[in-house]
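May I ask for whichever protein you like with its backbone structure tokens?
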Amino acid sequence: MDLKEHVIAVLAEQAMLDPGDIDPAQPLADLGIDSLALVETIFALEEAFDISIPFNANDAQAMSFDLSSVEALVAAVSDLVAKKAA
């Protein structure tokens, strides 16, 4: 499973959807992930990729981590994984 598939699998689990039902261009808000599930998704991604995601549940607007769409999330996780490997 590549990184994109793994991120989508984590999102699908949190949204209780089949990974095949998730479109990479889809906004995260369209997945039906509420704020609690978003926090759980962040924790699941951190654990899955052994990374630390700069996320502040109290001020989501102030963070630099892009959660606007599935593909933006995949790109952001990919960037953190690459920085960790460097």
